[in-house]
Fold this protein.
Amino acid sequence: MTSPPTRLPERQYMVGSLALAVGFGALGFFAGGGPQALGLPAPRPELIGQAPAAVQIHLWAAAASFVVGAVLLLGPKGTLPHRTLGWIWAATMGATAVSSLFIHEINPGGFSLIHAISGWVIVALPAALYAARRHKVQVHRASMTGLYFGGMFIAGGLAFTPGRLLGQVFLGAA
């Protein structure tokens, strides 16, 4: 008697679909001439090197948080790699939030509304870690997912607006 075929978990379908989409998107992007094919200017990475140290630390910590967080969200939970990467993600996310407190380009000399997200991360991150230590999985999952999407996509998305560094680097927006 043969066993019924096993179905791939839903997460593997999602990861596979995402990988295919990114692969085909990258292929089309580079085969089509890169950003210029979309009417965008060539990226200007030298602007990152000219930015203040706090901005550079913030940018690299945020980039690491983005990548490690994606791996954590898509990978298996509760495993040793998940816990290890989770601590790395918490450190990089904390560094992202704290370093942002030293950036005052939107409101020179003071905090801006975007700093509220940093405050939220500084408070919610330890609470989410505490929930994991107490095996409150649902609270931990919801908190970490909210921190990732709020920090990476809301605050990160605002970094691409005109006048902000990433907007200047990738979109030529002054």
In short: The chain has a mean pLDDT of 82. The radius of gyration is 19 Å. The chain has seven helices and no strands. Residues 99 and 151 are 13 Å apart (CA to CA).
